[in-house]
Amino acid sequence: MTSHFVKAERYIQLRKQCVPETWAKTINLISEMILMPLITLFFVFQMTASPMSILTTGMGAYNAWLRWIEYTELRFEMQNMYLHCMTVGGPFIVTNDPTYMPYVFADAAYRVPVGMAKSPAGGNLAA
Question: Where exactly are the structural domains of the chain?
Answer without folding.
Answer: 4-111
